[in-house]
Amino acid sequence: MTVFDEELQHLKEKLLRMGSLVEDAIKHSIQSLVERDNALAQKVIDNDRLVNTLDVEIDEESIRLIALRQPKAVDLRFITMAMKITTDLERMGDLAVNIAERALELNQEPVLKPYIDIPRMREIAQGMIRDALDAFVRKDKKLATEVIMRDDEVDDLKHEVLQELAFFMAQDPSTVFRAMKVSFVAQYLERIADHATNIAEMVIYLVEGKIIRHTVLPSDLQM
Amino acid sequence: MTVFDEELQHLKEKLLRMGSLVEDAIKHSIQSLVERDNALAQKVIDNDRLVNTLDVEIDEESIRLIALRQPKAVDLRFITMAMKITTDLERMGDLAVNIAERALELNQEPVLKPYIDIPRMREIAQGMIRDALDAFVRKDKKLATEVIMRDDEVDDLKHEVLQELAFFMAQDPSTVFRAMKVSFVAQYLERIADHATNIAEMVIYLVEGKIIRHTVLPSDLQM
Fold this sequence. Notes:
The structure is a homodimer.
Chain A (H helix, E strand, L loop, with lengths): L2 H32 L3 H32 L3 H34 L10 H22 L2 H31 L4 H33 L15
Helix pairs in contact in A: 1-2, 1-3, 1-4, 2-3, 3-6, 4-5, 4-6, 5-6
Protein backbone atom coordinates (compact mmCIF):
# COMPACT_ATOMS: atom_id res chain seq x y z
CA MET A 1 0.00 0.00 0.00
CA THR A 2 1.52 3.34 -1.03
CA VAL A 3 1.41 6.43 1.17
CA PHE A 4 -1.20 7.84 -1.19
CA ASP A 5 -3.36 4.72 -0.80
CA GLU A 6 -3.16 5.12 2.95
CA GLU A 7 -4.11 8.77 2.73
CA LEU A 8 -7.04 7.89 0.51
CA GLN A 9 -8.08 5.21 2.97
CA HIS A 10 -7.91 7.75 5.77
CA LEU A 11 -10.12 10.13 3.80
CA LYS A 12 -12.69 7.37 3.25
CA GLU A 13 -12.71 6.56 6.95
CA LYS A 14 -13.29 10.18 7.87
CA LEU A 15 -16.14 10.40 5.42
CA LEU A 16 -17.73 7.25 6.87
CA ARG A 17 -17.26 8.63 10.38
CA MET A 18 -18.99 11.84 9.35
CA GLY A 19 -21.80 9.76 7.82
CA SER A 20 -22.14 7.74 10.96
CA LEU A 21 -22.40 10.88 13.13
CA VAL A 22 -25.09 12.23 10.81
CA GLU A 23 -26.99 8.93 10.96
CA ASP A 24 -26.92 9.07 14.76
CA ALA A 25 -28.09 12.67 14.74
CA ILE A 26 -31.07 11.80 12.56
CA LYS A 27 -31.96 8.73 14.59
CA HIS A 28 -31.74 10.59 17.90
CA SER A 29 -33.62 13.63 16.64
CA ILE A 30 -36.64 11.50 15.70
CA GLN A 31 -36.29 9.51 18.91
CA SER A 32 -36.32 12.77 20.90
CA LEU A 33 -39.62 13.61 19.22
CA VAL A 34 -41.30 10.21 19.54
CA GLU A 35 -40.17 9.66 23.15
CA ARG A 36 -40.50 13.35 24.07
CA ASP A 37 -36.92 13.36 25.29
CA ASN A 38 -35.68 16.95 25.54
CA ALA A 39 -32.23 16.00 26.80
CA LEU A 40 -31.68 13.86 23.72
CA ALA A 41 -32.87 16.68 21.44
CA GLN A 42 -30.40 19.01 23.10
CA LYS A 43 -27.64 16.45 22.61
CA VAL A 44 -28.35 16.35 18.88
CA ILE A 45 -28.10 20.14 18.75
CA ASP A 46 -24.85 20.21 20.73
CA ASN A 47 -23.23 17.40 18.77
CA ASP A 48 -23.69 19.11 15.43
CA ARG A 49 -20.33 20.84 15.91
CA LEU A 50 -18.65 17.42 15.59
CA VAL A 51 -20.19 17.01 12.15
CA ASN A 52 -19.11 20.51 11.20
CA THR A 53 -15.56 19.87 12.36
CA LEU A 54 -15.32 16.77 10.17
CA ASP A 55 -16.75 18.69 7.22
CA VAL A 56 -13.93 21.21 7.45
CA GLU A 57 -11.29 18.56 8.08
CA ILE A 58 -12.32 16.51 5.05
CA ASP A 59 -12.23 19.59 2.82
CA GLU A 60 -8.78 20.54 4.07
CA GLU A 61 -7.45 17.02 3.74
CA SER A 62 -8.85 16.69 0.21
CA ILE A 63 -7.27 19.93 -0.94
CA ARG A 64 -3.95 18.95 0.62
CA LEU A 65 -4.08 15.54 -1.08
CA ILE A 66 -4.78 17.06 -4.47
CA ALA A 67 -1.99 19.63 -4.09
CA LEU A 68 0.62 17.15 -2.83
CA ARG A 69 -0.16 13.97 -4.73
CA GLN A 70 -1.62 15.36 -7.95
CA PRO A 71 -3.99 12.41 -8.33
CA LYS A 72 -5.37 11.60 -11.77
CA ALA A 73 -8.49 10.12 -13.28
CA VAL A 74 -10.68 8.17 -10.89
CA ASP A 75 -8.70 9.19 -7.77
CA LEU A 76 -9.06 12.88 -8.53
CA ARG A 77 -12.72 12.37 -9.27
CA PHE A 78 -13.10 10.46 -6.00
CA ILE A 79 -11.50 13.20 -3.90
CA THR A 80 -13.45 16.05 -5.48
CA MET A 81 -16.67 14.05 -5.08
CA ALA A 82 -15.80 13.50 -1.40
CA MET A 83 -15.70 17.28 -0.99
CA LYS A 84 -19.09 17.61 -2.62
CA ILE A 85 -20.47 14.82 -0.44
CA THR A 86 -19.44 16.59 2.77
CA THR A 87 -21.68 19.48 1.70
CA ASP A 88 -24.62 17.06 1.57
CA LEU A 89 -23.71 15.42 4.88
CA GLU A 90 -23.28 18.74 6.62
CA ARG A 91 -26.71 19.79 5.41
CA MET A 92 -28.23 16.57 6.73
CA GLY A 93 -26.66 17.34 10.11
CA ASP A 94 -28.33 20.76 10.07
CA LEU A 95 -31.65 19.11 9.22
CA ALA A 96 -31.29 16.76 12.19
CA VAL A 97 -30.76 19.87 14.33
CA ASN A 98 -33.92 21.36 12.84
CA ILE A 99 -35.84 18.20 13.75
CA ALA A 100 -34.47 18.35 17.31
CA GLU A 101 -35.56 22.01 17.57
CA ARG A 102 -39.07 21.12 16.46
CA ALA A 103 -39.03 18.23 18.96
CA LEU A 104 -38.19 20.64 21.79
CA GLU A 105 -41.17 22.80 20.78
CA LEU A 106 -43.59 19.93 20.21
CA ASN A 107 -42.62 18.19 23.45
CA GLN A 108 -44.04 21.16 25.36
CA GLU A 109 -47.50 20.56 23.97
CA PRO A 110 -50.01 17.69 24.03
CA VAL A 111 -49.27 14.88 21.60
CA LEU A 112 -51.11 15.40 18.33
CA LYS A 113 -51.13 11.72 17.41
CA PRO A 114 -48.78 8.74 17.70
CA TYR A 115 -45.94 8.98 15.21
CA ILE A 116 -45.98 6.03 12.81
CA ASP A 117 -45.02 7.17 9.33
CA ILE A 118 -42.32 9.57 10.53
CA PRO A 119 -40.21 6.90 12.26
CA ARG A 120 -40.63 4.81 9.11
CA MET A 121 -39.40 7.71 6.97
CA ARG A 122 -36.46 8.12 9.34
CA GLU A 123 -35.57 4.46 9.04
CA ILE A 124 -35.54 4.50 5.24
CA ALA A 125 -33.66 7.81 5.05
CA GLN A 126 -31.03 6.60 7.51
CA GLY A 127 -30.50 3.40 5.53
CA MET A 128 -30.16 5.48 2.37
CA ILE A 129 -27.32 7.51 3.90
CA ARG A 130 -25.45 4.44 5.07
CA ASP A 131 -25.81 2.67 1.74
CA ALA A 132 -25.00 5.75 -0.33
CA LEU A 133 -21.72 6.22 1.53
CA ASP A 134 -20.89 2.51 1.38
CA ALA A 135 -21.59 2.61 -2.34
CA PHE A 136 -19.27 5.61 -2.63
CA VAL A 137 -16.27 4.15 -0.83
CA ARG A 138 -16.70 0.77 -2.56
CA LYS A 139 -17.61 2.36 -5.91
CA ASP A 140 -20.67 0.09 -5.96
CA LYS A 141 -22.99 1.20 -8.73
CA LYS A 142 -25.67 -1.39 -8.02
CA LEU A 143 -26.07 -0.31 -4.39
CA ALA A 144 -26.15 3.35 -5.45
CA THR A 145 -28.97 2.59 -7.88
CA GLU A 146 -30.95 0.92 -5.10
CA VAL A 147 -30.56 3.99 -2.90
CA ILE A 148 -31.98 6.18 -5.64
CA MET A 149 -35.01 3.90 -6.00
CA ARG A 150 -35.79 4.11 -2.29
CA ASP A 151 -36.25 7.87 -2.45
CA ASP A 152 -39.77 7.33 -3.83
CA GLU A 153 -40.83 5.48 -0.69
CA VAL A 154 -39.82 8.45 1.44
CA ASP A 155 -41.73 10.81 -0.83
CA ASP A 156 -44.83 8.64 -0.67
CA LEU A 157 -44.69 8.52 3.11
CA LYS A 158 -44.23 12.28 3.31
CA HIS A 159 -47.24 12.72 1.07
CA GLU A 160 -49.32 10.55 3.43
CA VAL A 161 -48.11 12.43 6.49
CA LEU A 162 -48.99 15.80 4.97
CA GLN A 163 -52.43 14.63 3.85
CA GLU A 164 -53.18 13.35 7.32
CA LEU A 165 -51.96 16.55 8.97
CA ALA A 166 -54.09 18.67 6.66
CA PHE A 167 -57.07 16.56 7.71
CA PHE A 168 -56.27 17.20 11.40
CA MET A 169 -56.00 20.92 10.86
CA ALA A 170 -59.23 21.10 8.90
CA GLN A 171 -61.08 19.12 11.61
CA ASP A 172 -59.70 20.94 14.61
CA PRO A 173 -58.16 24.40 14.33
CA SER A 174 -56.47 24.00 17.72
CA THR A 175 -54.06 21.54 16.09
CA VAL A 176 -52.79 23.95 13.43
CA PHE A 177 -49.53 25.03 15.05
CA ARG A 178 -48.55 21.55 16.13
CA ALA A 179 -49.53 19.99 12.81
CA MET A 180 -47.45 22.53 10.92
CA LYS A 181 -44.43 21.68 13.02
CA VAL A 182 -44.91 17.97 12.42
CA SER A 183 -45.21 18.73 8.71
CA PHE A 184 -41.82 20.46 8.89
CA VAL A 185 -40.29 17.33 10.40
CA ALA A 186 -41.65 15.25 7.51
CA GLN A 187 -40.17 17.73 5.07
CA TYR A 188 -36.78 17.71 6.79
CA LEU A 189 -36.71 13.92 6.49
CA GLU A 190 -37.61 14.12 2.84
CA ARG A 191 -34.73 16.55 2.28
CA ILE A 192 -32.38 14.21 4.10
CA ALA A 193 -33.39 11.43 1.70
CA ASP A 194 -32.82 13.83 -1.21
CA HIS A 195 -29.28 14.49 -0.02
CA ALA A 196 -28.65 10.73 0.20
CA THR A 197 -29.96 10.43 -3.35
CA ASN A 198 -27.52 13.14 -4.44
CA ILE A 199 -24.67 11.14 -2.99
CA ALA A 200 -25.83 7.98 -4.74
CA GLU A 201 -26.00 9.84 -8.04
CA MET A 202 -22.42 10.99 -7.54
CA VAL A 203 -21.37 7.37 -7.05
CA ILE A 204 -22.73 6.47 -10.46
CA TYR A 205 -20.95 9.49 -11.91
CA LEU A 206 -17.76 8.32 -10.25
CA VAL A 207 -18.07 4.76 -11.53
CA GLU A 208 -19.32 5.42 -15.02
CA GLY A 209 -17.59 8.73 -15.56
CA LYS A 210 -20.89 9.91 -16.92
CA ILE A 211 -23.76 11.78 -15.43
CA ILE A 212 -27.00 10.30 -14.26
CA ARG A 213 -27.52 13.26 -11.99
CA HIS A 214 -30.46 15.17 -13.38
CA THR A 215 -31.81 12.33 -15.46
CA VAL A 216 -34.03 11.50 -12.48
CA LEU A 217 -36.58 14.19 -11.76
CA PRO A 218 -36.18 16.02 -8.45
CA SER A 219 -38.12 13.88 -6.05
CA ASP A 220 -39.73 16.67 -4.08
CA LEU A 221 -41.83 17.94 -6.94
CA GLN A 222 -45.01 16.59 -5.44
CA MET A 223 -46.49 17.95 -2.26
CA MET B 1 -2.90 36.51 -19.42
CA THR B 2 -1.79 32.87 -19.34
CA VAL B 3 -3.84 30.03 -20.76
CA PHE B 4 -4.60 28.98 -17.20
CA ASP B 5 -5.86 32.47 -16.36
CA GLU B 6 -8.14 32.30 -19.35
CA GLU B 7 -9.42 28.90 -18.33
CA LEU B 8 -10.07 30.17 -14.83
CA GLN B 9 -11.88 33.18 -16.26
CA HIS B 10 -14.00 30.86 -18.36
CA LEU B 11 -14.90 28.83 -15.29
CA LYS B 12 -15.94 32.00 -13.44
CA GLU B 13 -18.11 33.07 -16.35
CA LYS B 14 -19.84 29.71 -16.45
CA LEU B 15 -20.50 29.87 -12.74
CA LEU B 16 -21.97 33.35 -13.09
CA ARG B 17 -24.09 32.18 -16.02
CA MET B 18 -25.39 29.31 -13.90
CA GLY B 19 -26.15 31.79 -11.09
CA SER B 20 -27.97 34.06 -13.47
CA LEU B 21 -30.15 31.19 -14.75
CA VAL B 22 -30.99 30.24 -11.17
CA GLU B 23 -31.86 33.84 -10.34
CA ASP B 24 -34.21 33.98 -13.31
CA ALA B 25 -35.80 30.69 -12.31
CA ILE B 26 -36.51 31.97 -8.80
CA LYS B 27 -37.84 35.29 -10.05
CA HIS B 28 -40.12 33.67 -12.61
CA SER B 29 -41.34 30.97 -10.24
CA ILE B 30 -42.62 33.59 -7.78
CA GLN B 31 -43.97 35.70 -10.63
CA SER B 32 -45.89 32.69 -11.92
CA LEU B 33 -47.49 32.39 -8.48
CA VAL B 34 -48.28 36.06 -7.93
CA GLU B 35 -49.57 36.64 -11.47
CA ARG B 36 -51.14 33.17 -11.71
CA ASP B 37 -49.22 32.54 -14.91
CA ASN B 38 -49.14 28.78 -15.63
CA ALA B 39 -47.13 29.13 -18.83
CA LEU B 40 -44.38 30.89 -16.92
CA ALA B 41 -44.40 28.20 -14.22
CA GLN B 42 -44.05 25.56 -16.91
CA LYS B 43 -41.15 27.47 -18.43
CA VAL B 44 -39.32 27.44 -15.10
CA ILE B 45 -39.80 23.67 -14.89
CA ASP B 46 -38.61 23.10 -18.46
CA ASN B 47 -35.60 25.40 -18.16
CA ASP B 48 -34.19 23.57 -15.16
CA ARG B 49 -32.32 21.25 -17.52
CA LEU B 50 -30.17 24.24 -18.56
CA VAL B 51 -29.09 24.70 -14.94
CA ASN B 52 -28.36 20.99 -14.66
CA THR B 53 -26.29 21.00 -17.82
CA LEU B 54 -24.13 23.82 -16.50
CA ASP B 55 -23.73 22.02 -13.17
CA VAL B 56 -22.24 19.01 -14.95
CA GLU B 57 -20.12 21.13 -17.29
CA ILE B 58 -18.59 23.11 -14.43
CA ASP B 59 -17.73 19.91 -12.55
CA GLU B 60 -16.11 18.42 -15.63
CA GLU B 61 -14.20 21.57 -16.44
CA SER B 62 -12.98 21.90 -12.85
CA ILE B 63 -11.70 18.32 -12.74
CA ARG B 64 -9.99 18.77 -16.10
CA LEU B 65 -8.35 22.01 -14.94
CA ILE B 66 -7.03 20.41 -11.77
CA ALA B 67 -5.69 17.39 -13.67
CA LEU B 68 -4.04 19.39 -16.45
CA ARG B 69 -2.80 22.52 -14.69
CA GLN B 70 -2.14 21.21 -11.20
CA PRO B 71 -3.10 24.53 -9.63
CA LYS B 72 -1.81 25.36 -6.16
CA ALA B 73 -2.91 27.30 -3.10
CA VAL B 74 -5.69 29.79 -3.71
CA ASP B 75 -6.35 28.65 -7.31
CA LEU B 76 -6.88 25.05 -6.24
CA ARG B 77 -9.06 26.22 -3.38
CA PHE B 78 -11.04 28.39 -5.80
CA ILE B 79 -11.68 25.55 -8.26
CA THR B 80 -12.72 23.03 -5.60
CA MET B 81 -15.01 25.65 -4.03
CA ALA B 82 -16.56 26.28 -7.46
CA MET B 83 -17.48 22.59 -7.59
CA LYS B 84 -19.08 22.82 -4.15
CA ILE B 85 -20.94 25.97 -5.17
CA THR B 86 -22.54 24.28 -8.18
CA THR B 87 -24.12 21.82 -5.75
CA ASP B 88 -25.79 24.74 -3.97
CA LEU B 89 -26.85 26.41 -7.22
CA GLU B 90 -28.27 23.21 -8.61
CA ARG B 91 -30.32 22.76 -5.44
CA MET B 92 -31.64 26.31 -5.74
CA GLY B 93 -32.73 25.49 -9.29
CA ASP B 94 -34.65 22.49 -7.96
CA LEU B 95 -36.29 24.69 -5.34
CA ALA B 96 -37.42 27.14 -8.03
CA VAL B 97 -38.97 24.14 -9.82
CA ASN B 98 -40.73 23.21 -6.58
CA ILE B 99 -42.11 26.74 -6.30
CA ALA B 100 -43.34 26.58 -9.90
CA GLU B 101 -45.05 23.24 -9.17
CA ARG B 102 -46.83 24.73 -6.16
CA ALA B 103 -47.78 27.73 -8.33
CA LEU B 104 -49.42 25.40 -10.89
CA GLU B 105 -51.45 23.83 -8.09
CA LEU B 106 -52.35 27.07 -6.32
CA ASN B 107 -53.29 28.79 -9.56
CA GLN B 108 -56.16 26.32 -9.93
CA GLU B 109 -57.77 27.51 -6.73
CA PRO B 110 -59.14 30.82 -5.40
CA VAL B 111 -56.49 33.24 -4.17
CA LEU B 112 -55.93 32.84 -0.44
CA LYS B 113 -54.62 36.38 0.03
CA PRO B 114 -52.47 38.84 -1.88
CA TYR B 115 -48.81 37.88 -1.73
CA ILE B 116 -46.76 40.58 -0.03
CA ASP B 117 -44.06 39.02 2.13
CA ILE B 118 -43.26 36.22 -0.33
CA PRO B 119 -42.23 38.54 -3.19
CA ARG B 120 -40.13 40.45 -0.64
CA MET B 121 -38.47 37.20 0.46
CA ARG B 122 -37.81 36.39 -3.19
CA GLU B 123 -36.23 39.79 -3.78
CA ILE B 124 -33.83 39.46 -0.84
CA ALA B 125 -32.94 35.84 -1.65
CA GLN B 126 -32.27 36.68 -5.28
CA GLY B 127 -29.99 39.57 -4.30
CA MET B 128 -28.17 37.24 -1.92
CA ILE B 129 -27.39 34.79 -4.74
CA ARG B 130 -26.10 37.51 -7.03
CA ASP B 131 -23.94 39.08 -4.35
CA ALA B 132 -22.63 35.75 -3.04
CA LEU B 133 -21.43 34.78 -6.51
CA ASP B 134 -19.97 38.23 -7.17
CA ALA B 135 -18.18 38.01 -3.84
CA PHE B 136 -16.85 34.60 -4.87
CA VAL B 137 -15.44 35.55 -8.25
CA ARG B 138 -14.02 38.83 -6.86
CA LYS B 139 -12.89 37.22 -3.59
CA ASP B 140 -14.72 40.03 -1.78
CA LYS B 141 -14.97 39.20 1.89
CA LYS B 142 -16.92 42.32 2.85
CA LEU B 143 -19.70 41.60 0.36
CA ALA B 144 -19.81 37.97 1.48
CA THR B 145 -20.27 39.08 5.09
CA GLU B 146 -23.18 41.32 4.06
CA VAL B 147 -24.86 38.39 2.32
CA ILE B 148 -24.66 36.33 5.50
CA MET B 149 -26.27 39.13 7.52
CA ARG B 150 -29.22 39.35 5.14
CA ASP B 151 -30.21 35.75 5.81
CA ASP B 152 -31.89 36.87 9.05
CA GLU B 153 -34.28 39.13 7.13
CA VAL B 154 -35.45 36.18 5.06
CA ASP B 155 -35.92 34.08 8.19
CA ASP B 156 -37.93 36.83 9.87
CA LEU B 157 -40.18 37.19 6.83
CA LYS B 158 -40.70 33.44 6.66
CA HIS B 159 -41.66 33.45 10.32
CA GLU B 160 -44.26 36.15 9.64
CA VAL B 161 -45.65 34.30 6.63
CA LEU B 162 -46.01 31.06 8.60
CA GLN B 163 -47.68 32.80 11.53
CA GLU B 164 -50.17 34.44 9.23
CA LEU B 165 -50.91 31.20 7.41
CA ALA B 166 -51.47 29.37 10.70
CA PHE B 167 -53.95 32.09 11.61
CA PHE B 168 -55.80 31.60 8.29
CA MET B 169 -56.00 27.85 8.79
CA ALA B 170 -57.23 28.18 12.36
CA GLN B 171 -59.94 30.67 11.29
CA ASP B 172 -61.14 28.83 8.22
CA PRO B 173 -60.49 25.11 7.70
CA SER B 174 -61.28 25.42 3.99
CA THR B 175 -57.96 27.25 3.58
CA VAL B 176 -55.79 24.44 4.99
CA PHE B 177 -54.57 22.85 1.77
CA ARG B 178 -53.84 26.16 0.07
CA ALA B 179 -52.18 27.63 3.15
CA MET B 180 -49.91 24.59 3.48
CA LYS B 181 -48.81 24.99 -0.11
CA VAL B 182 -48.06 28.66 0.41
CA SER B 183 -46.09 27.72 3.54
CA PHE B 184 -44.01 25.37 1.39
CA VAL B 185 -43.18 28.22 -0.97
CA ALA B 186 -41.98 30.32 1.98
CA GLN B 187 -39.82 27.44 3.13
CA TYR B 188 -38.36 26.90 -0.35
CA LEU B 189 -37.36 30.56 -0.42
CA GLU B 190 -35.77 30.29 2.99
CA ARG B 191 -33.75 27.30 1.79
CA ILE B 192 -32.65 29.25 -1.27
CA ALA B 193 -31.36 32.00 1.03
CA ASP B 194 -29.58 29.33 3.11
CA HIS B 195 -27.79 28.07 0.01
CA ALA B 196 -26.71 31.64 -0.82
CA THR B 197 -25.41 31.94 2.74
CA ASN B 198 -23.42 28.72 2.25
CA ILE B 199 -21.77 30.22 -0.81
CA ALA B 200 -20.94 33.43 1.05
CA GLU B 201 -19.36 31.39 3.85
CA MET B 202 -17.21 29.60 1.29
CA VAL B 203 -15.99 32.97 0.00
CA ILE B 204 -14.72 33.88 3.45
CA TYR B 205 -13.07 30.48 3.66
CA LEU B 206 -11.45 31.12 0.28
CA VAL B 207 -10.20 34.57 1.21
CA GLU B 208 -9.09 33.93 4.77
CA GLY B 209 -8.08 30.32 4.31
CA LYS B 210 -9.93 29.72 7.55
CA ILE B 211 -13.39 28.60 8.33
CA ILE B 212 -16.29 30.77 9.33
CA ARG B 213 -18.64 28.14 8.10
CA HIS B 214 -20.35 26.72 11.15
CA THR B 215 -19.50 29.62 13.43
CA VAL B 216 -22.87 31.06 12.45
CA LEU B 217 -25.77 28.97 13.65
CA PRO B 218 -27.93 27.38 10.97
CA SER B 219 -30.48 30.02 10.20
CA ASP B 220 -33.48 27.75 9.89
CA LEU B 221 -33.50 26.74 13.52
CA GLN B 222 -36.58 28.78 14.25
CA MET B 223 -39.97 27.90 12.82
